[in-house]
Amino acid sequence: MPRLFVALEVPRNAAMSLSLLRGGLPGARWIDVENFHITLRFIGDMDGRTADEVVDRLDRIERPEFQLALSGIGSFGSKKPHSVFAGVTPAPDMFALQAEIERICQRLGLPADPRKFTPHVTLARLRNARTEDVARYLTGRGNFHTAPFMVNRFVLMSSKESVGGGPYLTEEVFPLYDTGSAWDGTDLYDHPV
Question: InterPro entries, per this entry (predicted)?
Answer without folding.
Answer: Cyclic_Pdiesterase, Phosphoesterase_HXTX, RNA_CPDase
